[in-house]
Specification:
The complex is a heterodimer. In chain A, strands 2, 4, 5, 6, 9, 10 and 11 form a 7-stranded mixed beta sheet that branches. In chain A, strands 1-3-8-7 form a 4-stranded antiparallel beta sheet, with no helix packed on it. Chain A is built from no helices and 11 strands. By secondary structure, chain A is mainly beta. Chain B is an all-beta fold. In chain B, strands 2, 5, 6, 10, 11 and 12 form a 6-stranded mixed beta sheet that branches. In chain B, strands 3-9-8-7 form a 4-stranded antiparallel beta sheet, with no helix packed on it. The relative contact order of chain B is 0.34. The chains are: A mainly beta, B mainly beta. The interface between A and B is medium-sized, with 26 and 22 residues.
Chain lengths: 113, 114
């Protein structure tokens, strides 16, 4: 019972490089989310997908893109990484209307140098 | 717009003390859900409790208890007889009934000293 799986767990990028963070859930949830966690800032929503085929911006979307590949997978792409994107990234999923709490992946610690 | 305020940035207690973590929320929705999560030093986010806006009953689970008061828009979390293993960052979160998108507070870091 894997829940939400994120890859990679750690990554170091140089400024300007691109990368994609992968996320998959096996709970058949409709909604998926990407958050970033910075010291003293809590978790801030980057993008979310309310259902397969839809994506919307959250609080801090600049510099990111997302793809809801299918119901299971929701990826986050940094096209040109900047030091300000150094953070811990969490993917989450939930099923609105039933068990409404979000289930989180283990997080990806990203450092941009 | 939704907002969750955790005014306590860091709390330091000695083992066996009781401690209360405050959470105040703002929403215009009449239906909403409140949550608490724990983030231990290992970094994962652990779900603790869910409460919907129509259920103001307080809840107790072992040493943990939660006090939900709609009149003051608060959902406070009390740990009785704290233990070193309770040391973690605790997040309060709010999901409106329409979008269900969770909004998180900034978290309270609890340090329990032996």
């Amino acid at each position: 019972n894997a829940g939400v799986t994120q890859t990679p767990k750690f990554q170091v990028l140089k400024t300007g490089q691109s990368m994609t963070l992968q996320c998959a859930q096996d709970m058949n949830h409709n909604s998926m989310y990407w958050y970033r966690q910075d010291p003293g800032m809590g978790l801030r929503l980057i993008y979310y997908s309310a259902s397969e085929g839809t994506t919307d911006k959250g609080e801090v979307p600049n510099g990111y893109n997302v793809s809801r590949l299918n119901k299971r997978e929701f990826s986050l792409r940094l096209e040109s990484a900047a030091p300000s994107q150094t953070s811990v990234y969490f993917c989450a999923s939930s099923e609105p209307g039933s068990r409404t709490e979000a289930f989180f992946g283990q997080g990806t610690r990203l450092t941009v140098v | 717009a939704q907002k969750v305020t955790q005014a306590q940035t860091e709390i330091s207690v000695v083992e066996k003390e009781d401690v209360t973590l405050d959470c105040v929320y703002e929403t215009r929705d009449t239906t909403y859900y409140l949550f608490w999560y724990k983030q231990p030093p290992s970094g994962e986010l652990v779900f603790l409790i869910r409460r919907n806006s129509f259920d103001e009953q307080n809840e107790i689970s072992g040493r943990y208890s939660w006090n939900f008061q709609k009149s003051t828009s608060s959902f406070n979390f009390t740990i009785t007889a704290s233990q070193v293993v309770d040391s973690a960052v605790y997040f309060c979160a709010l999901s409106p009934g329409g979008s269900y998108i969770p909004t998180f507070g900034r978290g309270t870091s609890l340090i329990v000293h032996p």
